[in-house]
Design brief:
0% strand; mainly alpha; elongated; 2 helices; 49 residues
Length: 49
């Protein structure tokens, strides 16, 4: 659990949470079909990094 105390790791996690929250807000303004496609693209890009 030592890595969780690393400030850089915490910053990255915070940035990810904030970006996901922002994406959700943007997506909620779009139509459901577009939202699903965007979510799939985001998840795919996250897992293929």
């Amino acid at each position: 659990m030592a890595f969780a105390l690393d400030p850089k790791v915490l910053m990255v996690l915070l940035a990810m949470i904030l970006s996901i929250d922002t994406l959700n807000r943007i997506a909620s303004l779009l139509e459901p079909k577009v939202r699903i496609v965007l979510l799939a693209i985001v998840l795919f890009s996250e897992f293929t990094k």
